[in-house]
Amino acid sequence: MASAPTTAPPPAPVLLAVRDVSKFYGNDRAPALEHVSLELQPGEFVALLGPSGSGKSTLLRILSGLIEPSEGDLLVHGAPWTGPNPQVAIVFQSFALFPWLTVLQNVELGLLAVDLKPDDRRARALKAIDLIGLDGFEEAFPKELSGGMKQRVGFARALVVQPEVLFLDEPFSALDVLTAEHLRNELKELWMDRSLPTKSVLMVTHNIEEAVTLADRIVVFGANPGHIRVELPGVTPEQRRAHGPAQTRLVESIYRIMTNPDEDPSTFLERPKRKPARRRAKPRYPALPAVGLDDLAGFVQFVSSIGGRADLHVLSRDLQMRNDELLALIEAADLLRFAEVAERTLLLTPPGEQFADADLDAEKAMLRASVLEHAPVMRHVVQTLRDAPSNTREAEDLVRELQGAFGAEEARRQFETVVDWGRYTELFSYDTADGELRLDEEHGIAVDG
Ligand code: ADP
C-alpha cells in the first residue's frame, strides 16, 4: 500500500534538554536530583514547582551549565554540552546588582561577553530598559531604587543578551505582594504579546498561582531525592488572560498534588490530559512470591505456635527478618490460603492451622493441592508437562515464556521459585545438568487438567 503524503510540520527543535540526569553532592554523595529528563521547546513558558529541597535550583544550574550533572546529559540543540551555556540568561531572586554602577551600566554589564561596539551596546541596553519600564532611571544607582525597580534591572540585564532561553529563579519572591503582582502581570503581557527577545522561559517558583498565571507547562517536583512527579499542561492563553475558573481549578489540583506528596498525582486531576505511561502487558500469571516452601511451612508453624495470629510489627521484630522477606512469606501464606491479613494482623485460616499441625506427607499433599488451585503459573507448568512428549520440557523454553510475562530479571527469579515449589510438592523435578523439567510420575500425573 502506498503511503499517504505527509503534510505534518517537522517536529519543533528542542532548545534545551536534560536526559536522565542525577546530581549527588558532597563526600557522601547525597542525591539532590535523580533520573530527571526534561525538554524545552521554542515558544514555551515552563514553570518548575515543588517543595524546598526538591532539586529545582540544582536542575536550573545544570541546565545553565553552571554545574555538571553527576550522571546523564545536558543537550543544547540536541547535542551534548558541557560548560556555561551561552544561550541562557538568569534573573535571580536576589537582584545581584553592582551598587557602584548606574542602571544603564548594570544593564550593559549583561553584554560584557558579547563583542559589540560601545554605541551598539548602549543602544541595546536602552532598548531593554525601555521594554522593561525603567525609562527615566538610566542614571540612577541601585540604592535609589525600590525592590520592584531593582528587579526590573535584573530582567533588563538578562534580556539585553537576547538569550534563547530566559531562566527565572524565583524572581518575585523577594518583593512585597503588590509589587510582585504588578511585575508578574507585566511579564505575562510581554510574554503573551511576544515582546520578549527570548524564545522560551523556564521559571522556578514556590507559588502555584504564579505558575498557573504564567506557564504553558507546569512541572511538579517531589523531594527525597528530587524528582519530577508530574508534568501538566497549563491553561490556555485565553483562559490566562481572563483569569477564569479553569485557572482556579488547576491551582486547586496542583495544591492537592503538592500537599499529598506520597499520592499518585493523577488522583487529583480532573481529566488527566497526559497519555498514561505505557504499561507492560498484563502478566498471564500473577508473580509467585520469592519464598521457599520449606520456609513457608516453618513460618506458618511459628505463627501457629504463638496462637495463630500476630501483629506484623511483632513478627518483624521476633523473626529478625528484612521487611521484603517477611512480606514475601506473608504473600505466599495468603496466596495459598493459609493466612489472611487484616489491618496490621496476620491470622491463620483453618486450613493454615491444619497445615501447621500436619506431618510431612500431609503437609506436602496440602501444598500440592493449594499450589495447583491458587498459583496459576504452577498449574500451567504441570499442564504443559503433561501434554509434552515424555512429560519433559526445556527449562529455557519456560524461562522464555516467563520473560514475556515478567521481563528478563524477574523471569529468572520466577523460574527459581517455580522450580523450588515443583520440587517441594513433588509435582515435577528439574535436572540442572540437562536443563529439563520432568513431571513426577506419581504426583504430577494425578493432576486434574
Ligand atoms: P530547591 O531549589 O528545590 O529548593 P535545591 O536544588 O536547592 O532544591 O536542593 C536540592 C538538595 O540538594 C537539597 O537537599 C540541598 O540541601 C542540596 N544541595 C543543593 N546545593 C547543594 C550544594 N552546593 N552542596 C550540597 N548540597 C546541596
The hetero compounds bound to this protein are:
adenosine-5'-diphosphate
The CATH class designation of the largest domain is Alpha Beta
Unreliable segments (pLDDT under 50, ≥5 consecutive)?
Answer: 1-6, 276-283
**Describe the biggest sheet?**
6 strands, mixed
- Could you please say which CATH topology of the largest domain applies here? Rossmann fold
C-alpha Rg (nearest Å): 32 Å
Fourth-level CATH superfamily of the largest domain: P-loop containing nucleotide triphosphate hydrolases
- Biggest sheet, strands in spatial order? 6-7-8-3-9-10
Structural class: alpha/beta
CATH architectural type of the largest domain: 3-Layer(aba) Sandwich
Percent helix = 40-55%
Calculate the terminal CA-CA distance, rounded to whole Å.
Answer: 46 Å
Integer tally of domains:
2
Number of strands: 16
**Share in β-strands:** 15-25%
What is the global morphology? elongated
Q: Averaging pLDDT over every residue, what do you get?
A: 88
- Count of helices? 16
Provide a short characterization of the protein structure.
The protein has 16 helices and 16 strands. With 449 residues, it is an alpha/beta fold.
Write up this protein.
- It contains 16 helices and 16 strands.
- The two termini are 46 Å apart.
- The protein has helices spanning 56-63, 103-109, 118-131, 147-159, 177-192, 208-214, 237-242, 245-259, 293-305, 312-319, 323-335, 350-357, 360-374, 376-387, 395-406, 408-425; strands spanning 16-25, 30-40, 45-49, 71-76, 79-80, 88-91, 165-169, 200-205, 217-222, 227-233, 309-311, 339-342, 345-348, 392-394, 428-431, 436-439.
- It has 449 residues and is of the alpha/beta class.
- It has a six-stranded mixed sheet, with helices on both faces. A four-stranded antiparallel sheet has the order 2-1-4-5, with helices on one face.
- The protein has two domains: 16-268, P-loop containing nucleotide triphosphate hydrolases (Rossmann fold, 3-Layer(aba) Sandwich); 293-439, no CATH class.
- α5 (177-192) links the parallel β7 and β8 (200-205).
- Helices cover 41% and strands 19% of the residues.
- α2 runs parallel beside α4 and α6 (208-214) crosses α8.
- Adenosine-5'-diphosphate is lined by residues 25-26, 32, 50, 52-58, 226.
